[in-house]
Amino acid sequence: MTATAPPVKDETPADERLLRTSPLQRLLGRPELGSVVGAVAVFVFFAIVADGFLRASSFGTVLYAASTIGIMAVPVALLMIGGEFDLSAGVMVTSAALISSMFSYQMTANVWAGVGVSLLVTLAFGVFNGVMLTRTKLPSFIITLGTFLMLTGLNLGLTKLISGTVSTKTIADMEGFASARALFASQFSVGGVDIKVTVLWWFGLVAVATWILLRTRFGNWIFAVGGGADAARAVGVPVRTTKIGLYMGVAFCAWVSGQHLLFSFDVVQSGEGVGNELIYIIAAVIGGCLITGGYGSAIGSAVGAFIFGMTSKGIVYAEWNPDWFKFFLGAMLLLATLLNHWVRKRAEATR
Amino acid sequence: MRAVRAVLATVLGVSLAATVAGCSATGGKRAEDARKAAAEGRSAVDTPRWTVAMVTHSGDGDTFWDIVQNGAKQAAVKDNINFLYAHSDEGQQQAQLVDSYIDKKVDGLIVTLAKPDAMKAAVARAVKAGIPVITVNSGSEQSKAFGALTHIGQDETIAGEAVGDELDQRGRKKALCVLHEQGNVGHEQRCGGVKKTFDGDLQNLYVDGTNMPDVQASIEAKLQTDRSIDAVVTLGAPFADAAAQAKKAAGSDAEIDTFDLNAKVAAGLKSGQLGFAVDQQPYLQGYEAVDLLWLYRYNADVLGGGRPVLTGPQIITEKDAAALAQFTERGTR
Fold first, then answer.
1. Could you give the domains of chain A?
2. Closest Cα to residue A228, out of A348, A83, A76, A131?
């Protein structure tokens, strides 16, 4: 018996970073994969149980609901990838709307002037959050909780002080209103379905954020500061600028969202927006962002917002008792996070 | 950092330029000032300066309670009363606020009993301390038992019943009741009242009142699902406008009706965009409460004969809207 030695395989591995991965593996490594699976599941579920969910006009409504959350979920997701939170994001939307409305009204100025001032002030809120965070080194939870409370109080106090009531006066009869409304709160028809312009804003923001994250140096910085701020600083990433920039991104989107609020209803209630910041964070987390930072995507946040829109409106279409809505939401948040976790583990194991 | 600064500078420049260049020739503060004739009140009596405190279950920034306060303040000016106001939508905190006013030894207390159980002990303490208490808005059933002088407000069930009757008269068959706060007893009573007298079918829809786009999208979704809905009843004035927009987007021809009034609702009634509004006259709830406490202090007067004094429901339609528009704009209706 002649023993032939088995052919010895070349066991010295090439550099693992240069390994070719199959397209499937690359797909499994995407942060938004879990949420896409979830979105398909939610869609199929409501398509079966809810009458009228599949109608074209319903799609427009669901998209609108998703877009108002999605516009804010994009910068919140980026911020979470960068390792921080913003609890002031919800009321900042209301602040942005109040500033535009009250500035235009009190100054009897063209509405666009108010919109410009609002952009400026809202960005300043973002800078405040960012600077406070990077200077004091306190956790973002504390800093933005402070901003959240201060803005809530300012919204009410200043509105009451300036307008004399808790809601703003109507600015619908002022110059510039029509053109501003066209930009922030109009709608158009695609194949007989009415689509709100917020959907375009949303898609645009997702596209820009995705480009920033994947194709620019700033995008790398975001992942770096989220993954480990000290390590990032050590290799020359400007951590401070990156974080301030991220908070300004949140402020910018809060401004967009606030202008939509103003120009679609033309009167703003000063007590609104409290609690929405959690909804944005939920959308980002369902979309695959890790709470610990360093991992996630803008497209994922959009999918998360879409799941949110489908669930909240699907329950109406299905004519279910809405007492259970928050329960569904919580269950979905847990499931999505578990699914994300599982998918990521598998992706890392097969690599 | 430099890029950030450049962006800020550009935005600042642009918006300043816009402000200087672009004044609006229509609307705005200038128009309001032109409309408004100054009418500052002076006290009409020379009784000592008593202090009256009001503690409500209002959330932050609620239009309705703003009007109540306006009424109370106006009466306070007239009656030479020092008026204090506090609110919390948490029952326990509302009771604590009442306690702190008792500690301050105010001369009169106005409270709401939206969460009667939480308020029972606090009202009892006030009565024991010799402070006259008047309940407003909610709590008509408990008011007397708790030891309050009078209750001033609208019975939510009766108001709902009035809406049901009005819907019947208008020949509506299927109505939607939009509740903007889950778990609010008054809201359930209103929709329950509508259900009692409405001959058609009534469905409840819960929406998130702090998120207007969501309110609109939810109503839109409902109207798309059920084409046979021919009336939508909202429980607060700000939500009527959202309902009107949802109706437009859903291509429905349902009639929009609402509880409570504001400038926008008055305009909507006038233009026929809204069917009718049920007003409980919040201004009267604040005004009468303060005035009655003054009357009690001055003359030991009590109103109502042990029964609630009703401030509503008053059904307001297109006919009345024109006359009320100016009052809604100054925030007293």
1. 33-167+176-343 (1.10.3470)
2. A83
- What is Dmax (Cα atoms) for chain A? 103
User: What sign does the dihedral A19-A20-A22-A28 (CA atoms) show?
Assistant: positive
Count CB atoms within 10 A of the CB of residue B104.
10
Distance (Å) of CA B299 to CA A201, B44, B45, B293, B294: 64, 16, 13, 10, 8
Please state, in angstroms and as integers, the Cα–Cα distance from residue A335 to each residue in A27, A42, A70, A107, A341, following that order: 20, 12, 20, 50, 10
In chain B, residues with a C-beta closer than 8 Å to the C-beta of A155 are 61
Closest residue to A61, CB basis, from B1, B31, B217: B217
Sign of the torsion formed by the C-alpha atoms of A46, A47, A51 and A55: positive
How does DSSP classify residue A17? G
B114 CB-near residues (< 8 Å, 6+ apart): B57, B91, B137, B138, B139, B184, B185, B186
Label residues A64-96 b or e (16+ Cβ within 10 Å = b): bbbbbbbbbbbbbbbbbbbbbbbbbbbbbbbbb
Range in A18-27, A67-76, B99-108, B301-310 with the lowest mean pLDDT: A18-27
Q: Please state, in angstroms and rounded to a whole number, the distance separating the CA atoms of residues B296 and B136.
A: 16
Prediction pTM value: 0.79
**Share above pLDDT 90 across residues of chain A, in percent, rounded to a whole number:** 53
Lowest mean pLDDT, pick from A27-41, A144-158, A334-348, B131-145? A334-348
- The pairing of strands B150-153 and A187-190 is unpaired
Token pair 């009005």: residue: B166
Write the ipTM.
0.71
Query: What local confidence, expressed as pLDDT, does residue A290 receive?
Result: 83
Instruction: Identify whether A13 is preceded by a cis peptide bond (ω within 30 of 0).
Output: no
Using CB atoms, pick whichever of B24, B212, B250 lies closest to residue A272. B212
Say if residues A123 and A255 touch (Cβ distance below 8 Å).
Answer: yes
Mutate to test the interface with B, among A55, A67, A167 (most CBs of B within 10 A): A167
Query: CA of B93: how far to CAs of A270, B90, B97, B103, B154, in Å?
Result: 22, 5, 6, 15, 24
Give the residue carrying structure tokens 């108010």: A114
**Looking at the partner chain, which of A68, A110, A156 has a beta carbon nearest the beta carbon of B18?**
A110
Per the structure block, which two tokens stand in for A43? 């869609």
Among A120, A151, A160, A240, most B C-beta atoms within 10 A, so best to mutate, is A120
> Residue B185: CA atoms inside 13 Å, Cβ hemisphere, count?
14
Give bridge partners of residue B231 from the DSSP assignment: B175, B255
Can you give the pLDDT at residue B242?
92
The continuous run of DSSP H or E covering A194 comes out as strand A193-196
- The answer to whether B71 and B41 are in contact (CB under 8 A) is no
- Does B249 sit within 8 Å of A61, measured CB to CB? yes
3 state DSSP class of B202: strand
- Helix (H/G/I), strand (E/B), else coil: B24: coil
DSSP B257: E
What letter represents residue A170's amino acid? T
CA A43 vs CA A27, A56, A202, B144: distances in Å:
21, 14, 20, 54
Chain A residue numbers with beta carbons less than 8 Å from the beta carbon of B245 are 264-265
